């Protein structure tokens, strides 16, 4: 269930939502500003809002999965820290979900998400002998960081 969820929330759902809104937007030819705003809206909502909320809830209520399958830690001592990570993920995810109602939240959530996913991706990259779930986390985290950083740093131009 983890792999399809990551692929859907980090790649498919935002892409479908972005294309659908662009097709339904009644602006004729979309400007770069409108296009970038749509990308930011849907990517932040999906990757930061939905993905981190769901991941955080799973980490809070089933910390063993993240500890063992993602991080490769079999010690029960890690479960407390995974729950703490889950709480942080739910907090960031809630802010990401809030951007759907409050567009002014987009810039700080873009920056927070870019930093979080970027550092998490680098952290996965440093692991020697990664498993396939860690490789998926590496790729999806760095992709998310790139998209979110682009949205944030391109914002003054659009």
Core attributes:
mainly alpha, 6 helices, single chain, 158 residues, elongated
What does this structure look like?
- The chain is an all-alpha fold.
- It has helices at 2-24, 32-61, 63-70, 78-98, 106-125, 132-154.
Shape: elongated
Count of DSSP helices?
6
Helices and strands, in order, run as HHHHHH
What is the number of E strands? 0
Quote the beta fraction. under 5%
Write down the domain tally: 1
How many angstroms does the end-to-end distance come to? 37 Å
List the helices and strands and how they pair.
Blueprint lengths: L1 H23 L7 H30 L1 H8 L7 H21 L7 H20 L6 H23 L4
Helix pairs in contact: 1-2, 1-6, 2-3, 2-4, 2-5, 2-6, 3-4, 5-6
Structure summary:
The protein has about 160 residues and is mainly α.
């Amino acid at each position: 269930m983890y792999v399809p969820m990551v692929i859907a929330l980090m790649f498919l759902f935002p892409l479908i939502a972005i294309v659908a809104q662009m097709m339904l937007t009644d602006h004729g030819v979309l400007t770069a500003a409108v296009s970038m705003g749509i990308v930011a809206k849907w990517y932040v909502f999906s990757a930061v809002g939905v993905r981190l909320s769901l991941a955080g809830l799973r980490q809070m209520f089933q910390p063993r999965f993240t500890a063992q399958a993602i991080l490769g830690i079999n010690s029960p001592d890690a479960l407390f820290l995974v729950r703490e990570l889950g709480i942080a993920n739910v907090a960031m995810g809630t802010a990401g979900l809030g951007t759907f109602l409050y567009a002014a939240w987009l810039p700080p959530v873009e920056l927070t998400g870019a930093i979080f996913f970027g550092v998490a991706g680098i952290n996965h990259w440093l692991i020697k002998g990664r498993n396939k779930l860690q490789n998926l986390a590496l790729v999806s985290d760095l992709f998310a960081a790139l998209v979110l950083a682009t949205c944030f740093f391109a914002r003054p131009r659009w």
